[in-house]
Specification:
The chain is of the alpha+beta class and 486 residues long. It has eleven helices and 16 strands.
């Protein structure tokens, strides 16, 4: 049973940002809550101190006159106690025996479980209650009162609504969230820029890898990246060294195989042609022997052709071609191939024409491009009927005033390839059914070689029908024209 596929790793930058910003956001949130509650304690302390000051001011006006506790609260002071710009204030003065002296008699009493405040040197207790359907904060102060005839303790209660406190609470909350949110955003920007700066060497290494030619297997400089990434770069360099060794071995094998195959096949072909020539001189030679030597010669030709194409395909697939990439004239290369194969076209009375819009140059491998064109034209000649026509074209694919690519076309009026089979003819040894009876000795490797060479040049290949009549148009679009000479 196959194991589960490993999870695909995402962006390193995203993961670093998540691992840095998420804990930072959590810490900031915890800190914001802590700061908020600390600020609330400070606000409560400040408001309680103000409430106690009001209670003490009222307590100073409580005295005993003629054996009765009185509260001398003038109208102006009473008005300031009853109304405040930030909320309402209520008060109540209770005598030595619990009688109401002044104020609001229904003000909530002190709960029995409220302890005396240790924050002030006074007998004061703070508590919260609901009064007239709104929450209030009350300070209850025990004030000693006395004269020559009596003494005791009066209770002075001053309560204020929570509007001011709630307003300050909301202000503290919003200020805290705003500051902490700003801190998170600034920290996120700093982390993003820091991660981007730290990962810059890796991005430069990626750019260098992407810009390398397919045949360039030289190592990368480990000094380009950070110390933690250098083992990876060294491992890449070691892998490319092993790959170079492997490719060098394959190149040697291809060269040796080419020599070992071509030599005996050439000798066999020569012997078959000599034997056939001698049989033709002998007027009384058996016809069966002549047919045997003719078949041997045809088989030898097919075997040589197959061996050459197999070796060419191996070179194209493994890049075992000397010379590398250099400026190549598609126009000159196609003209040269047309001259090389013109004799085959003449022998079959095929009209071979060449059209060009000038000297079009691209960056490519001259040997591979020559093989590509030879295979295209050889296929066209093999499958074009006697007396047919083949047109070779080299032209630029450009926008007005700016060349962007080059097109190489080979058009014939042969049987063509059905659209249903055009996707498969690039597979090695596959042959379209309509062409097998025309050329029974075909190898099915020509278009495979063309596809491999086109892929090495980042070129697109397409099979189309001619605008008029039957046949086939093989169109190869090369990117990056470097020069067009008219």
């Amino acid at each position: 049973m196959a194991g589960a596929a490993p999870a695909r790793l995402g962006s390193l930058r995203s993961q670093l940002l998540r691992w840095l910003l998420l804990p930072l956001t959590l810490l900031v949130a915890v800190d914001a809550v802590s700061v908020y509650y600390n600020a609330l304690e400070v606000a409560d302390l400040a408001y309680d101190r103000s409430l106690l000051a009001s209670t003490r001011a009222l307590a100073e006006r409580v005295s005993i006159v003629d054996g009765h506790v009185i509260a001398d609260v003038p109208y102006v002071a009473l008005d300031s106690f009853e109304t405040d710009t930030l909320g309402r204030i209520y008060y109540k003065v209770t005598g030595l025996n619990g009688e109401l002296v002044s104020g609001y008699d229904d003000l909530p009493p002190v709960p029995p479980n409220v302890k005396r405040s240790e924050a002030y040197p006074a007998l004061v207790r703070f508590y919260q209650a609901d009064y007239h359907d709104q929450p209030i904060r009350i300070a209850a102060l025990l004030q000693p009162v006395y004269d020559d005839s009596m003494r005791g303790i009066a209770l002075i209660q001053v309560g204020e609504t929570m509007d001011a406190r709630n307003g300050m609470t909301r202000k503290i909350l919003f200020d805290t969230l705003w500051r902490q949110g700003t801190l998170v955003i600034v920290a996120a920007l700093l982390v993003w820029f820091a991660v981007r700066f730290v990962l810059r060497p890796m991005m430069q290494l990626r750019s260098e890898v992407e810009s390398r030619a397919p045949t360039d297997l030289s190592g990368f400089d480990p000094a380009l990246v950070h110390k933690e990434m250098r083992p990876l770069v060294l491992a890449m360099n070691g892998y490319m060294e092993r790959l170079q060794t492997l490719i060098a071995g394959q190149r040697r094998f291809i060269a040796d195989a080419s020599h070992q195959l071509r030599t005996p096949l050439t000798v066999l072909k020569t012997q078959a042609e000599l034997g056939l020539r001698e049989l033709r001189r002998e007027q009384h030679a058996p016809s069966e022997l002549r047919e045997l030597f003719e078949g041997m010669a045809r088989t030898t030709d097919s075997t040589v052709h197959l061996a050459n194409r197999l070796l060419t395909l191996a070179r194209a697939e493994h890049g075992a071609v000397e010379g590398g990439m250099a400026p190549v004239s598609l126009t000159d290369a196609m003209r040269q191939v047309a001259l090389e194969l013109s004799q085959q076209a003449v022998m079959r009375r095929i009209e071979l024409s060449f059209e060009s819009e000038g000297d079009i140059r691209i960056d490519g491998n001259a040997l591979l491009l020559h093989e590509l064109m030879v295979n295209l034209l050889d296929n066209a000649i093999r499958y074009t009927p006697d007396g047919g026509r083949i047109t070779l074209r080299v032209r630029g694919a450009s926008e007005p005033g700016q060349p962007t690519g080059a097109l190489l076309e080979v058009e014939d009026n042969g049987p063509g390839i059905p659209e249903a089979e055009r996707g498969r003819v690039f597979e090695p040894f596959y042959r379209a059914g309509a062409t097998q009876h025309i050329n029974p000795s075909g190898t099915g490797l020509g278009l495979s070689i063309v596809r491999e060479i086109a892929a090495m040049h980042q070129a697109d290949i397409a099979l189309e029908s001619p605008a008029q009549g039957s046949g086939l148009v093989v169109r190869i679009a090369f990117p990056g024209v470097i020069e067009v000479r008219l």
